[in-house]
Amino acid sequence: MMISNGLAQIHGCTLHEGFANPCVIWGKGRGEMLAGMFVMGWFMLITVPVGAVVLLVLAIGSVST
To answer: N or C terminus of the chain: which is more exposed, having fewer CB within 10 Å?
Structure first.
């Protein structure tokens, strides 16, 4: 998420989670790629806490047996 945002800012592109905007980086259109990278950062908000809970449950389960 931070990398896509940084690349978009360096190259003067608009980036948000709504839709892909045109963005030319190194001579090629990279808007779709940047938008995908940006949205993947939002998945972290779900997967990291769920992973932490699963890890905690597994750790507690292995200690009690």
So the answer is: C
Residue 32, classed as helix, strand or coil, is helix
Higher confidence at residue 46 or residue 18? Answer: 46
Domain range for 60 is 2-64
Sequence-separated (6 or more) residues with CB below 8 Å from residue 30: 7, 23, 24
- Greatest alpha-carbon pair distance for the chain in Å reads 59
- Report the C-alpha gap between 29 and 27 in whole angstroms: 7
> Is the overall model pTM greater than 0.70, yes or no?
no
- Report the domain count for the chain: 1
Work out the angle at residue 49's Cα, subtended by the Cα atoms of residues 47 and 50, and round it to the nearest 5 degrees. Answer: 60
